[in-house]
Amino acid sequence: MRIAFSTGRPAHAVLPANLLAKRGAQATIFTAAYRARFPKLEPAVRLRWVPQFVPSLHFLTGVQLARPWQRADTAFYDHLVAVRIATTRDRFDIFWAWASGALASGRAARRRGARFVLDRACPHVDAQQALIQMECDRLGVPYQPEPPWFRARQLAEYDEANIILVPSTYSHGSFPPELQSKTLVAPLFGRVPLQHVIHTSNIAPVSASNARSERQRPFTFGTVGGQPLRKGFLYLLQAWKQLRLPNARLLLRTDAPLDRSPVLRDLLRQLPNVEIVRYVENMSDFYRRCDAFVFPTIDDGFGMALLEAMALGLPAIATTHCGAAELFTPGQDLIVVPAQDAEPLASAMQSLYSSDEMRERLRANALRSLRQIEGNGTYQLYSTTLDQILAGCRPATL
């Protein structure tokens, strides 16, 4: 089985490439990144360099060009990969590429007999944009829709793909019925090596190690997110304002310029017990400052931060729009609340704040469930879907 990947940046290409290489497949990655940026990539996996200028410029200089440049560069990279595929002597049985940058290359691969797997980490583009537009209205910031030509590319990718790979049923449900039949769910449990997330042998439970006294240290909720339009900070701050918990604080780990939203800016001015945490070298240090984790996201196809926090012993709250929450039992391992609604979020936070028993029960159950997910083989959930893809993509000529 010969498999080609296309990803300008590493994304999570190491995971499927390594798993396929261990199954005896010949794996090749078309990419603008150097091998050093693919940690622990199997030596048997080959790289073929294709330039992508905007990410390379950002990596080398820190300069971030405007979104129109990024979109144009993504399309140009896609066409360069298509040219490489059309002119190479190699033929591939599967062409696996990441959404938004795979239309021309996917078509080129299909013309040469490959099956096209489109990896989409987020919901359907139209469903996602509808959420973002709603958030822009609520946050008081202008909505910037995708350029029509770029949206058309994304929709055409869905039609061209033989398989659409998504990380959760939340993402799967956002696709129309005519596309759901070729959409497979593969939890991205393994975006980073499993041992970097779960330290089951030496974990120091946060709730046990803190031994918190109400008079000594504030009860601390923590959250993580980079994009205010998708991470639900509005509803979290509204819930926090409503609660007015005594001797409590909220940590927001984000580098986003929150003051660009007049609504968020006004809320933060009213809430002195909210701390914005910028760059953190070791995220486990941030999690260990917290007594509980809250993930109010309105759009996360997966959401690795939830697993990181739960693995470090934090009782957690997540929304129905967090794909990672689907790996657990609501009410047993964590609390799950509707997205875009401050009321149930506030109620859940009040419950964790008030009940030592609930925090300890959720913490213990979550760690047990994480160990079961780990099971006796790394990435078993992802691997199951990978085997489905291989079974469906074996041509009769092999």
Q: What features would you describe in this structure?
A:
The protein has 398 residues and is of the alpha/beta class. It has two domains: 2-190 and 378-393, Rossmann fold; 194-374, Rossmann fold (3-Layer(aba) Sandwich). It has 18 helices and 13 strands. The protein has helices spanning 14-22, 53-61, 67-87, 103-111, 125-139, 148-160, 169-172, 177-180, 194-197, 206-210, 228-231, 233-243, 262-270, 283-287, 304-311, 342-354, 356-374, 380-393, and strands at 2-6, 26-31, 46-49, 94-98, 115-119, 163-166, 183-185, 219-224, 248-253, 274-277, 292-295, 316-319, 335-337. A seven-stranded parallel beta sheet has the order 3-2-1-4-5-6-7, with helices on both faces. A six-stranded parallel beta sheet has the order 10-9-8-11-12-13, sandwiched between helices. Helix 3 runs parallel beside helix 4, helix 12 (233-243) packs parallel to helix 13 and helix 12 (233-243) packs across helix 16 (342-354). The protein starts with a strand and ends in a 5-residue tail after the last helix.
How much strand content do the residues show? 5-15%
Order of strands across the biggest sheet? 3-2-1-4-5-6-7
Query: CA-to-CA gap between the ends?
Result: 8 Å
State Rg.
22 Å
What is the arithmetic mean of pLDDT? 88
- Give the second-level CATH assignment, the architecture of the largest domain: 3-Layer(aba) Sandwich
Low-confidence stretches: 190-211
Principal-axis shape equals: globular
Number of domains: 2
Helix-strand makeup class = alpha/beta
CATH level-1 class of the largest domain: Alpha Beta
CATH homologous superfamily annotation of the largest domain: Glycogen Phosphorylase B
The level of helicity is 40-55%
Can you count the helices?
Answer: 18
Q: Major sheet: size, sense and barrel closure?
A: 7 strands, parallel
Q: Briefly note the CATH topology name of the largest domain.
A: Rossmann fold
Strand elements, count: 13
